[in-house]
Amino acid sequence: MPSLPNLGLRNRVNRGDRGSRSAPSSGVRSASVVDCAVYVEGKRLPGEWSHEEAMAEVRSRRGGFVWIGLHEPDQERINGIAETFGLHELAVEDAVHAHQRPKLEHYDDTLFMVLKTVRYVPDRARATNSEIVSSGELMIFLGRDFVITVRHGNQAALTRVRAELERSPEQLALGPSAVLHGISDHVVDSYLEVTESIQDDIDSIETEVFAPRTSIDAEQIYLMKREVMQLRRAVMPLSQPLQRLAGDHTPHVADQVRSYFRDVEDHLATVSERVASFDELLTTLVDATLAKITLQQNTDMRKISAWVAIISTPTMIAGVYGMNFDRMPETEWAFGYPVTLLVMMVCCVMLFKIFRRNNWL
């Protein structure tokens, strides 16, 4: 993730309030609340905070911002946070129920962004449904002095993003939009990692398809194509929200951060190109596999037809003598039986050599 420079736009803090304010209370945190922190001048204030205490602290200082991380919260938990921060009810409903496409919406004085999170599932860890790309969702509420993240699924955890940002106070000093950039960059980087792993899988399939005398299951390619389509639904709609964040008219986005959203957009364009190429390549591999399967079936049918022709010759001769007519050729001859067997054998050998010479066997 590129480093954001400190351009002197840190929020000013009332030094007197810092010394006189009491420490936050350490209440029992809900299981859905991953973390709740207050950042002033890019540095995290010590202690544990409830969302009411954190918001009151920031508003009293008139500087800094709150970052709350939630994981699959229930309606009751998020309603209390929504009331404190003034979140729009439609955005709150989307955050609780998930199943949204990537988007960026403006509600009153708050931005609401939805990202699709993905994670590559290795062969040894794949479930019975053979899922290659595991997906989830990440919702972000962005205000003037707060960031609220709501995560669904276990993909793209934000613990590492928070730790990296806290090691760079100059980035956090730029405000909540720096957090939004860090999260977006982290999610898009995960897209790049997934596409690299998928590329390795597709290369293996391609080698197997075009290798001589190998059999490939077309279902495996269809499964890979399904997963690529799922990744495409996560990647393609995100381009427009990133363009808006890099523009000049999106509220709560610091000017210093806009150019870094353009960098994230460039990375997303790389991912989009890879996904599009995957789709085309898999379509080609499906056609090649079907052609290979058809050729194999034709070869098998030729072998079956050749063996049927070989077996039908002695069957025909035995069938003629099995009709038990009184006047059959050579029925009274002492050598009739062995000669008939010899004729059957000679016919079968001749047919076998003919079919072998024509590559039917």
In words, what does this structure look like?
With 361 residues, the protein is α+β, with helices and mostly antiparallel strands. It is 55% helix and 14% strand. Among the domains are: 8-187, CorA soluble domain-like (Beta Polymerase, domain 2), CATH 3.30.460.20; 294-357, Magnesium transport protein CorA, transmembrane region (Methane Monooxygenase Hydroxylase, Chain G, domain 1, Up-down Bundle). The protein contains 11 helices and 7 strands. A 7-stranded mixed beta sheet has the order 2-1-3-7-6-5-4, sandwiched between helices. Strand 1 (33-40) and strand 2 form a beta hairpin.
Which structural traits does this protein have?
14% strand, disordered N terminus, Methane Monooxygenase Hydroxylase, Chain G, domain 1, 11 helices, 7 strands, alpha+beta, Beta Polymerase, domain 2, 361 residues, CorA_cytoplasmic_dom
Topology, please?
Blueprint: H1 15-20, E1 33-40, E2 43-44, H2 51-61, E3 65-71, H3 75-85, H4 89-97, E4 103-107, E5 110-120, E6 133-142, E7 146-152, H5 159-166, H6 169-172, H7 176-210, H8 218-235, H9 239-246, H10 255-321, H11 336-357
Parallel strand pairs: 3-7
Antiparallel strand pairs: 1-2, 1-3, 4-5, 5-6, 6-7
